[in-house]
Amino acid sequence: MQLQKTDKARAELQSGSRTLGQRERALLILADGKTTVGAVNHLFNGQAQILAHQLIATGYLVGINLERPSTLRAEAAPTALVPASTAAPAHAADNFEGKRSLATTRMFLFDICERMFVRRAPGQAEAFREALRNAKDRESMLAAARDMIAAVETIAGAERADSISERIAMLLPPES
Predict the structure, then answer these.
(1) 47-52 contact pairs (CB < 8 A, 24+)
(2) How far apart are CA 130 and CA 153, in angstroms?
(3) CB–CB of 26/47 below 8 Å?
(4) Backbone region of residue 157 per phi and psi (left: phi > 0; alpha: psi in -120 to 50; beta: other values)
(5) With pLDDT > 70 as the criterion, what percentage of the chain qualifies?
(6) Does 128 have pLDDT greater than 70?
(7) Of 94-98, 130-134, 172-176, highest mean pLDDT
(8) pLDDT recorded at residue 176
(9) Where do runs of H (alpha helix) occur along 31-121?
(10) How far apart are CA 50 and CA 163, in angstroms?
(11) Would you call 84 helix, strand, or coil by DSSP?
């Protein structure tokens, strides 16, 4: 979805008028009708979607839906974002076209371990690392992955755990 400023946003960005915080103003500046939430998400530590929802709800931004056919995009009318909690993605995990292997799966799980557990639970992170180092076959890799997914569900919720499970299923080689 592309973000576009409203007149209210332009007034906010004029000198002498500051009612929003720095992060909100930064997103307003980036909203040029071409920029998508996904393109700037990394600049807001993964919080651009939430921030965009707030700014749309308060009338500072409008979202132009990119899901329409390309023939309608030029004349697309601004639409409000559907809150993420009510919109179920068709596919939670992104497409993966790479080679399926235990090594790829292991690296993905190490990455999840670093992102999710190192700061929150260093002892648990070390236990997951050790389990992944010792996982030499499909069954031991799945056992380590199941333990990690259960911990992710506790920390980040069932939706995040499900998306990780889907990715693992795409990365693991087929059963022989």
Answers:
(1) 47/23, 49/81, 49/84, 50/84, 51/23, 51/24, 51/27, 52/1, 52/3, 52/27, 52/81
(2) 20
(3) no
(4) left
(5) 78
(6) yes
(7) 130-134
(8) 64
(9) 37-40, 48-57, 70-73, 102-116
(10) 19
(11) coil
